[in-house]
Amino acid sequence: MTQSPSNSSLRVAARLAVGVALDLAKISGFGRDMVDGLLLVAISQANVALITRDPELQRTYATLDRPPPDDLRRPVSINAVAGSLRLPYETTRRRVAALVKAGVLQSTPRGLILPLAPLNSAFYHMAAEANYELLRTLYFRLRKIGLLSDLVRPNAPPFDPGHPPIRLVIRLSADYILRLVDQLNQYLGDLVSGLVFLDVFQANTEHLADTEGGDDGNEWHEEDFVPDTDRRPVRAADIARRLSIAHETVRRHLIRLVAQGRCERSDDGYWVSSHILASDPLLDIVLANQSNLQRLFAALAEAGVLSEWERQDFDRRGTSL
Fold first, then answer.
1. Residues 43-61: pLDDT tens digits?
2. Which residues are registered as beta bridge partners of 106?
């Protein structure tokens, strides 16, 4: 029988996943800020929903040299995108207009499409390869702390080593990001507040080793988390720089988060304390995140991606002996 992961491992997994989700959102914006990055993720996922639901199409359009044709992309309305991210309609419309003007998006009578041309650009290929490597690294880090060991590995056909399933991984990881964003939006009610909250949490803890997850027992009391003395407060200016969001906007959202009891402030900066992390709403997010991580990597296993990564890892370790 597979042993359930410890609470310590679940906390570390949440920390690792938040870091990867933020990095993925940063590299998804074609050099723009993270809100634009998430807009493009949401639009692209709506466009390719038909492919994401079909295992055969997923595999057909899995690699960088096989982008899905435009006739398989389903347009999505500005209103639907704004609703999915809980962004004000006017903010979404203004940002979409700028993305259309920049040639990243295409506006059609039926809605918005992220067309083929940007998805074949050198910039996109570089970002896509980074996305793929982030997910591959996350997988092995999660395995090392005792997670994902119970995933079934079907006998899927191997991928061509020269053409890894990068687009397939991007589509599945984008679904994960959007589920995490939705959970945070339900908790905080605002996309930018959610991004600021996540980055404060990440900045507080990114220096910790993967072995540092607090107490290994079965409790979720605040004393079981990593001690607050081990968290590094972060200043508003640093969050603004990390997120590429205006300093005044970040400062305003931080003031709101402190007033709502979602983070704390000292002379050294802001942090998400153990007391806040141990609250029921955030515990629900941590546990839901674990379920969503399992869902993401189960889908990657079903598509044969995990077996591919494990073969590559075995080959690398073999050649280094």
1. 999 999 999 989 899 999 9
2. 113
- C-alpha–C-alpha distance, residues 106 and 102, integer Å: 10
**What predicted TM-score, i.e. pTM, was given to this entire model?**
0.90
Give the number of other Cβ atoms within 10 Å of residue 137's Cβ.
13
Q: Find out whether 37 and 220 touch, Cβ atoms under 8 Å.
A: no
Reference 227, options 194, 204, 198, 202; nearest CA is 204
Separation between Cα atoms, residue 135 and residue 297, nearest integer Å: 9
Query: Residue 143 to residues 16, 146, 170, 307: CA-CA distances in angstroms?
Result: 12, 5, 20, 13
Contact predicate 168/303, CB 8 Å: yes
Please, which residues have CB within 8 angstroms of residue 282's CB and are 6 or more apart in sequence? 187, 276
Residue pair 299/146 in contact by the 8 Å Cβ criterion: no
104-143, pLDDT tens digit by residue?
Answer: 999 999 999 998 888 888 888 999 999 999 999 999 999 9
Residue type, 130: A
Closest Cα partner for 223 from 7, 4, 5? Answer: 7
Tell me the pairing of strands 111-113 and 269-271: unpaired
DSSP codes, 76-139: B-HHHHHHHHT--HHHHHHHHHHHHHTTS-EEETTEEE--HHHHTSHHHHHHHHHHHHHHHHHH
